[in-house]
Design a protein that fits this description.
11 helices, six-stranded mixed sheet, alpha/beta, 300 residues, four-stranded antiparallel sheet
Length: 300
């Protein structure tokens, strides 16, 4: 099947609040799709509908042409939610042994330990693990059944660099083996690096749905990185600057007009150095899309 998840005019209402508004969506049965949006945009509700945890108020949702929440659907999916409650007194090994019984062809403990870096704490009780170690166990349980689609909600929150790289490498492995991955993350550089396709949601609606390259290309302007003694507030006040922040020792500036911003920066700080200029990122495109939607909403 070419489609992992399909929704048709999917709407969800909680009282007077519209969480999803007539969503039409089709997610490929392979590749990594990033689902982006601010808190309250509707991402969690959409995922809950796909998992069978939330019933539509109207419209439909299908998972590999099956009804979400049914046993036959559950065996096709792996899930790593942002808040995952697991029994505290079981060890990682015991959790894996238990979850192995749910699937016909589960990955072995050795395979999961290698992919998720569980070796040092596999026999420790879950309640004694650090937040990052718990996320590794949760990730292992999400992929244990060799699912056809994996739902990953903020998978690298709380992870150190080594653990994050393990997760990224495994997501890339899943892509290459033909598994669909639906990734929600607030780390937009993560989505930029991993996702083949990106969906942007705002106020319960889809405002962008395209390849990550195409969405990134919609962002105008450029990103300037440099080292300078200028205060960030001074840079942020320049006419063509959208945003400014520190990234390590460098200042990162999102500009509508790179040439104009560079002229202004050099006029203020002739000693500005380590200068680089690059195309706009997925983060820039996301900000422009959501800012435009807010502006349009305010004007009606």
């Amino acid at each position: 099947m070419n489609t992992a998840l399909k929704t048709t005019q999917l709407s969800v209402r909680f009282g007077n609040k519209v969480a999803l508004n007539s969503i039409d969506l089709s997610i490929s049965a392979s590749g990594v799709t990033a689902l982006l949006g601010a808190n309250g945009a509707g991402k969690t509700t959409l995922i809950n509908c796909a998992l069978g945890l939330c019933k539509p108020s109207s419209g439909s949702v299908r998972l590999f042409s099956k009804t979400p929440g049914k046993t036959e659907s559950k065996r096709l999916i792996g899930v790593m939610l942002q808040d995952s409650a697991l029994p505290d007194l079981l060890s990682a090994r015991e959790h894996i042994q238990l979850f192995s019984t749910y699937y016909p062809n589960p990955l072995s403990l050795k395979q999961l330990s290698q992919r998720c870096g569980l070796e040092r704490f596999v026999d420790k009780r879950y309640k004694t693990l650090s937040g990052g170690q718990k996320r590794r166990v949760q990730f292992a349980l999400a992929i244990i059944g060799q699912p056809k689609i994996v739902f990953l909600d903020e998978p690298t929150t709380g992870l150190d660099i080594d653990a994050r790289n393990l997760v990224w490498n495994t997501i890339n492995e899943l892509r290459h083996t033909g598994t669909a991955v639906l990734l929600t993350t607030h780390y937009l550089e993560e989505a930029d690096s991993l996702a083949d396709h990106t969906i942007v949601m705002n106020n319960g609606e889809i405002i962008a749905n395209d390849s990550t390259d195409n969405i990134r290309a919609t962002a105008s302007g450029a990103v300037i990185q440099c080292e300078s003694t200028l205060d960030l507030s001074v840079i942020g006040a320049l006419e063509d600057v959208r945003s400014v922040k520190m990234r390590g020792r460098k200042i990162e500036i999102s500009s509508r007009n790179a040439t104009a911003s560079l002229v202004a920066l050099l006029a203020l700080d002739p000693k500005l150095n380590n200068l680089t200029v690059s195309k706009s990122s997925l983060e820039d495109a996301f900000k422009q899309l959501t800012d435009h939607t807010k502006t349009a909403g305010d004007s009606t």
